[in-house]
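Backbone geometry:
***
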Amino acid sequence: MSRGLIEVTFPAPLDPPNTGNADADEAITKLRTFPKRSPAKWRRPSGEEYDALVARAEAVGPEKLLELLDDATIQTGNTVWDDEQIDALPAKERRKFKKDHTKAGPEIKSRLAYLHWLVGATCNTEAGFERALEILKAGSAAVRDTTMSALMQDLEGDPQRLQVAAVFDLREWDGEELGNLYRAGLELFCELASPAEVYERYGDLAEDGAVRRTLLAGLAKAEALDPRWVPVALAAVGDLGLRHSALKILEHFEPDESWVEPFCAALPDPTKPGSLTYKDLLAPLAKVGDARALPYFMADLRRGWMSWEVCFEGLRKIGDPAGAHAVRDFLEKFPGTDRNEVGAALIAELEKDGAVPRMEVAAEDSKPTRTRPVLTYEKGPKPKHPNIEPLAELEKVYAKAFTDAGLEGAYEKLAQRAVLMLPTRVKEAELEVGATKLGGHPDLPAKTKWPRVSKEPLTFLAQVDLGDVAPLLPKGALPTEGLLSFFIGNDFEGPAGYCEKAKVVFTEPGAELVRREVPKDFYDVIYQAARVELVATVTLPSPSNKHVGKVLRGKKRDTYEEVFEACDAFEPLLPQLLGFRRHGWDAEEPGTSEMLLQLPGDDQTGMQFGDIDVLGIYVARKRLEAGDFSKVRPRLGDG
């Protein structure tokens, strides 16, 4: 079924395998539909059952398997989702589309996993390699991506690998749709060729705007680079879309004075008020220790605390006693034992020959005019929601993974149900008062005071109608009625700090709600409003989580780490209610703590936390069990 921007195409039917080996044919048949959870991170399933099927299938040899790599096999199907198009469908057609979309997703992933295995099992024969090249040059984007991944993983000969890299030679670039494949081709060429050869081939493309992003992204993954790329990367540091790749390239080289001017130009004007700057931009400047960077380190200390160690190091390297004033002011605004001790020593070092007058920073010293914000709807990018595996299927697969690993009983003790929230930006007036949403204005009783810390109004993040999520959670996980409203401190210099204080308001069921405007003394941001699709899922704690240590010890804990990775527990990273966080390691979380809400930055609400970090709001387990949300704690970070 296809209509405009939406599409559901199922994989083409396959003839029964006929390799002459009944056992292999049975295994191949099962591999064609073997469930695959992750859409990309691991191209094939894993586990003892899958590995046993692969061994049985490959027993017939690559020549027999190559016969299966026919045109039908590479017709893997496709799904395209667009909310506006789907909402415009008649109700009956819309229900059918969603049903087909839900059914097709797992089938497509299984077929792509089958293709990945089949290419890998045959690519080291001459005929198999030639067939893989044919697919790589003419298949659909998903098929070419899958084939490329299999070749990079399984192909053994370097001459053949160079031929694969040549298929996606950046000099023959033909569009963004295959940008990730050109990047993969460049990464492969960087692996096989010398740094000088890579530069000689692609150095003249550095000014080509069409391929520049892909060129830098590919170079960022190289293990060694020619120093002639340094000016190219320095020229890209000021472009926010290219900065990450440029900084990765520059990590190969020792900073010098030539870096100072482009890095300072990429930082905010130090004479003007602004938000926190990027630590990655300041760190190379700290290594150089050039006096031209002095105002930028001082300005960053005035603006916040997240880069204080880098700023201290930069000021120490420069050695200008004027920096002592910025350190002293910082310690007064952001006290802390480690900062105080290090800062006091730095002040003494900088002023060993005597103090100097303060530098004049007129714009920073005078407070800018602050205005109360008004939410204006801005049409945003179309949401790209991942396919979420059905809860029952996930629980079945995860529980089996635990059993297969000899961790019987641990799954029930460790796994936690959660609710994922898939956001779509809307005009807030379209949302019913009290509906579950991200961003916008809170819906609260008229007499409920706006949450504050030391008189500073907090920033509204989200509200959850507990009646919406109750059917998706175990009994007793949360109250079954009422409204939870989440607020955060969002001011680096305010009393609530930046993501250092949070409050959750619980509104009893039946209360009359009013969509509240921000207070007159509110000067922060109102995030774009987004309705959410709620999806039940199951989450596992990272191996470092204190919950794991209570259940598993010794070798069993090591085994759990393998199970955790096999279950792909990092994916997907979305707004989430309850469960374990879906990113990084969390050894710092106490075993008595439970995550109440997780918010990564997203383009639907316009939320962004720190340097592309993830915000979590935690509550003590006893309070959660009692339905007490009066005391919560935020944590910002992705590691």
